[in-house]
Request: fold
Amino acid sequence: MSGDVERMTSDRDDLLQRERCTRPDAETASASLQGDRANIVFLIVLYVLQGLSLGIGGVVAVLMKERGASFSDLGTFELHRWPFCLKLLWAPLVDATYVKRFGRRKTWMLPVLCAIGLMLVGTSLHIDDFLDAEQPAVLTLTFIFFVLHTLCATQDIVVDGWALTLLRPENVGWASSCNVLGVNLGIAIGHTGYFVLEQQLAATFRSFMLCSGLVITL
Reply:
């Protein structure tokens, strides 16, 4: 009987020891991020900029409905989200084509961010005309935001690939967390943030869109 108890105790101790070896404690996890914390913050910022544009697209849908757009019109406008479903078609091109002088990621990142920012600035100058007509310019808005989301999807490809080389191998798993946190935070700022500012400060959608474009460009 005592032998069985000793064996059970020994097996339990071995199991606890294996768990300690295979599951690092909080101090070890914190130490592993020591050299990548700045990179993680950088990735989150890039994903926030991406989500900001997506959130603005959601605001446009709400404003269209307020100005008399039908559900059919809203369904047509939702086509602007397709680039994120189709980005696999040009992802290999983005990964394979680059200027060595600038690097694989910066070759695409800088022009794409500038293009997104300039599109938001340019669209903001005419957004009132598109929305305040007798009937919202559904096809025009769909085309503009389809192009905008194509740029955002390209940015997503670049940042996802950049994360694999920017982070150390043991921290690559944090890339998906950066994506989820950054994109959703950006959407919240671009969507909910606008409506809060509209209620509290009487901000116009045109000014909000213009400022967002300038922030992304700069």
About this structure: DSSP finds twelve helices and no strands in the chain.
